[in-house]
Amino acid sequence: MPELPEVETTVRGLRPPLEGRRLTRVETRRADLRRPFPADLRQRMTGARITGLGRRAKYGLIETDRGDVMIFHLGMSGRWRIDPSEIGAHDHLVLETDEGRTLSLCDPRRFGSVDLVRGEDLAGFGPFKALGPEPLGPDLTGAYLAKALEGRVAPIKAMLLDQRIVAGLGNIYVCEALHMTGIAPTTMAGRIAKGRLDRLVDSIREVLAAAIEAGGSTLRDYARPDGELGYFAKQWRVYGREDEACHCGTMIRRRVDGGRSTFYCPKCQK
Predict the structure, then answer these.
(1) Can you tell me the distance from the alpha carbon of 208 to that of 49, in angstroms, rounded to the nearest whole number?
(2) Is 58 a catalytic site residue?
(3) What angle do CA 77, 161, 257 make, to 5 degrees?
(4) For 159-216, what is each residue's pLDDT tens digit?
(5) Could you tell me where the beta strands, DSSP code E, fall in 76-141?
(6) Choice among 58, 157, 224, 237 that is catalytic
(7) Residue 3: active-site member
(8) Which is catalytic among the residues 49, 109, 199, 260?
(9) For labelling alongside 32, which of 38, 80, 83, 203 has CA 20 to 30 A away?
(10) Backbone φ, ψ for residue 17 (5° rounding)
(11) What helix, strand, coil percent values describe the chain, rounded to 5?
């Protein structure tokens, strides 16, 4: 599933053709993805000017001069295509701008979603209500984590994947940040000292920034809006590297927790 860096990369790729442009055509080419498209999406978006693009957790945000925000989630296989040579069977939402550009939301497995809310109601949008702070924002600190994790006996990896604790973190980047910090993924969250949590926050930001710079990680169908693949997978420290050598020379191990693979170094991570 595309994670925060992939969504951030997508949003940045959509800005040049969309920001400041007016939508001249909005077409839904089926009734639904994971859930139905908003019934009034075409009416409210056609003729609207795009005033900004952003991200909240793993959701992309497209704002208009009418006060609406179109919220998209890429699901398992979704991606935006810019000026595709042809509209295919899996291009389920098509936008055209006053500049003559075409953008299509392609989602072969249809696990993505598109919603439309008023800007003033954005914080109350269902999936956003209980989200924790953004990992790249100022509210994520070691002190915040220490308070949020106080008394928690669950493993630190599970806590970091809890969107109520930190918004937008996914399996790949949690594995990478924990390895960078030297924290075992099974460590009881409430027992990690604040100094290590400070370093963990730094590692999370460093890993995410590097992934965004590299265009994300290419998994299955993910690609940037321009069609290029993300290359952060070439920089993975542990993720997907079972039985390969860590930089310390120890073989990287994999375990499965809650249906997710966890990759770690038994020597570097304590």
Answers:
(1) 31
(2) yes
(3) 90
(4) 999 999 999 999 999 999 999 999 999 999 999 999 999 999 999 999 999 988 887 6
(5) 79-82, 91-97, 102-106, 113-118
(6) 58
(7) yes
(8) 260
(9) 83
(10) -85, -15
(11) 30, 25, 45
